[in-house]
Amino acid sequence: MTRNLTCIVCPRGCEMTVLLDENKKFLSAEGNACPRGLSYAESECTAPVRSLASTVLTESGKLLPVKSASPIPKGKLFDAMREIRVALAPDTLCVGDVVLADLAGTGVALVATANAADL
Ligand code: SF4
């Protein structure tokens, strides 16, 4: 069977056709302009992940931009957003500081992407 994918690794957005076996196991892909697309297609068909960017409320009521330190499993995105929605960040956080150490049990940290004092 085949599956059509758009590579999201870079803005070029290559349209790819992925070949899967009868157990939906990745076999090959075509349409990617570089090797990163091949890695993306294999990952997307086996264990899809996404980077997450959002905001967390600070103690003084401002919105602190945050992101996952690395991509997390796609199936954990809603759990992660539930944790982010109720999190409260100290006003002393700086860029790169950890807001949540273990986002939705993934082992990936949620980190600040701005200085809370500059908001
Ligand atoms: S396959 Fe390569 S060039 Fe094409 S979108 Fe993915 S990363 Fe970009």
Features:
elongated; CPE0013-like fold; five-stranded mixed sheet; 119 residues; N-terminal domain of TfIIb; alpha+beta; 34% strand; binds iron/sulfur cluster
| Helix share bin | 10-25%
What top-tier CATH class of the largest domain fits best? Answer: Alpha Beta
Strand content: 25-35%
The CATH architecture term of the largest domain is Roll
Instruction: Evaluate the radius of gyration.
Output: 18 Å
Number of domain units: 2
- Which oligomeric state applies? single chain
* SSE run: EEEHEEEEHEEE
Form type: elongated
How would you summarize what this structure contains?
The chain is an alpha+beta fold. It is 18% helix and 34% strand. It has two helices and ten strands; from the N terminus they run E-E-E-H-E-E-E-E-H-E-E-E.
